[in-house]
Specification:
The strands form 6 sheets. A 5-stranded mixed β-sheet has the order 3-2-1-6-12, sandwiched between helices. A 5-stranded mixed β-sheet has the order 15-14-13-18-19. Strand 13 and strand 14 form a beta hairpin. With 437 residues, it is an alpha+beta fold. Helix content is 37%, strand content 28%. 43% of the residues are buried. It folds into 3 domains: 1-86 and 171-203 and 359-395, 2-Layer Sandwich (Nucleotidyltransferase, domain 5); 89-169, Dna Ligase, domain 1 (2-Layer Sandwich); 205-357, Nucleotidyltransferase, domain 5. The longest helix has 27 residues, at 294-320. It binds adenosine-5'-triphosphate and magnesium ion. Adenosine-5'-triphosphate binds at residues 17-20, 51, 85, 219-222, 242-244, 247, 262, 265-266, 333-335, 337-338, 372. Residues 17, 195, 219, 333, 375 line the site of magnesium ion.
Length: 437
């Protein structure tokens, strides 16, 4: 993206979700760093299951519909950053060490260039460990001669420099499919990020990111968790389970269509008790009244929500850090709108929880201030953070994509037009990466 230093600029984020596709266009003033949303559009998504694109043509159609929605408010959308959440994601924290001096040389202070070298080595080592696409690399901390880890080792003298690096992998095919769909819909993709990160940047306050906070996002087909501390991402995880499973449980146990199950699910609060449990819920089905009770609906939805919390989220949140390290948990995504969720989740976790909505919502239309929009809004917040701290979040996956594309024997997809666009995309990413190393 080329622009004059002091000119306000526009950024577009495309959040590809199982239930909905959202586009956010944000204008940022580079002098004050103030951003505001100038347009947001969201449509039902098609062709996506549990975060994976399974019918690309339907996905392209949905993205086009979302673009039309934004452009109908007289905005022109072009360069876009995608937020994706394929059902598989792996993260590892690895350590890599380089020598700062040869035998007989004097000790010298660590420089920025040493930091770049050790991070580069760690990225190579991460790549060698997996065939998947290295989507993000986050240098967490550094140590000089096995000292305590520190955020910035510059100026310390020693013989060896070690970095602790968080590497996040996703299947290359999933990333390629998402870029392919966005490009076919007419967007010029300039970046790809994992949606657990965008959900974090869209829902957490700066002090929460500093103190230690897990951003949980429970959407239609996926549940993600991203742990932030000391102002940056420390780890993440994603599971292919979400609110759609709750709806389909209700639909199959009660034998009703999904639309009615969705209605029932939203009518009950997880905190209902006493007399309220016997309240009846009624709707028309095939010309007759279908009647159930709050108690029956709760008996079907609670086990699935409990499974998400205790079987999936609890172990992963425990693995992120000690109870002292995790000061709070913020729940977002559509499922966070379930009435009574907050009091229901508290017994599962040792830390206080809150429901997250998009940070700084003042420029958002009222209908887009719900928990389900944190991931879309967070795309642009993440990009701004990366602009302001270019060494903090690296995306070496871009070179992985280049290698894959150049090494492939046949066309990446059918159709010359797309290959050309893909090459342009690769070139843009290649340039972006070479600025870092
Ligand atoms: N008021 C509500 N009560 C309970 N569940 C709700 C409510 N509103 C939305 N949901 C659920 O939230 C889910 C949609 O959430 P969201 O829009 O965050 O998903 P998504 O981003 O499209 O999917 P994903 O991120 O998992 O790919 C659906 O399962 C829907 O039933
Ligand atoms: Mg989502």
């Amino acid at each position: 993206m080329r622009r004059k230093a002091n000119e306000p600029f526009f950024l577009t984020g495309l959040d590809i979700g199982t239930k909905k596709i959202s586009i956010v266009v944000m204008e940022t003033d580079p002098v004050t760093s103030e951003s505001h949303v100038i347009s947001i559009g969201s449509v039902n998504s098609k062709g996506i299951k549990k975060g994976d694109i399974i019918e690309p043509d339907l996905c392209v159609e949905s993205i086009v519909n979302a673009i039309d929605k934004v452009e109908s408010s007289s905005m022109f959308v072009s360069d876009a950053i995608l937020s994706v959440g394929p059902s598989q994601v792996d993260s590892i924290i690895l350590h890599e060490t380089i020598r700062l001096r040869e035998e007989g040389d004097y000790e010298r202070p660590v420089t920025s260039s040493d930091m770049i070298d050790v991070v580069g080595e760690a990225i190579s080592s991460a790549r060698a460990r997996s065939d998947e696409c290295l989507l993000h690399a986050v240098p967490l901390e550094f140590s000089v001669d096995q000292s305590d880890f520190m955020p910035d080792p510059r100026g310390y003298k020693g013989t060896e420099l070690t970095v602790s690096l968080l590497a996040i992998f996703a299947p290359l095919k999933s990333i390629r499919d998402a870029v392919d769909c966005a490009e076919k819909a007419g967007l010029n993709v300039v970046g790809v990020i994992h949606k657990s990160i965008s959900a974090g940047f869209g829902s957490l306050l700066p002090e929460e990111m500093d103190n230690g906070c897990v951003a949980v996002n429970i959407g239609a087909g996926t549940t993600s968790a991203a742990f932030f501390k000391d102002g940056k991402l420390q780890n993440l995880a994603l599971f292919p389970i979400g609110g759609d499973q709750v709806t389909s449980d209700l639909a199959s146990v009660l034998g009703v269509p999904s639309i009615n199950a969705e209605y029932l699910k939203r009518e009950v609060a997880l905190s209902e008790s006493g007399e309220d449990l016997y309240d009846e819920l009624e709707f028309a089905l095939d010309g007759k009244a279908f009647i159930t009770s709050v108690e029956e609906v709760l008996s079907i939805i609670s086990p699935r929500i409990e499974e998400i919390l205790s079987r999936f989220l609890k172990p992963v949140i425990d693995s992120f850090g000690s109870e002292e390290a995790i000061c709070s948990i913020v729940f977002s995504g559509g499922v966070a709108k379930t009435p009574g969720l907050l009091s229901y989740v508290e017994p599962f976790f040792g830390a206080p929880a809150r429901i997250g909505t998009p940070v700084d919502p003042s420029s958002l239309p009222l209908e887009n201030r719900g928990s389900e929009f944190t991931s879309a809004v967070g795309i642009v917040n993440y990009f701004m953070e990366k602009e302001n701290n270019p060494d903090l979040y690296l995306e070496p996956s871009l070179t992985d994509l280049v290698k894959e594309a150049e090494g492939s024997n046949g066309p990446i997809t059918q159709g010359g037009k797309f290959i050309k666009k893909w090459r342009e995309f690769i070139q843009a990413l290649k340039n972006a990466f070479s600025e870092l190393f």
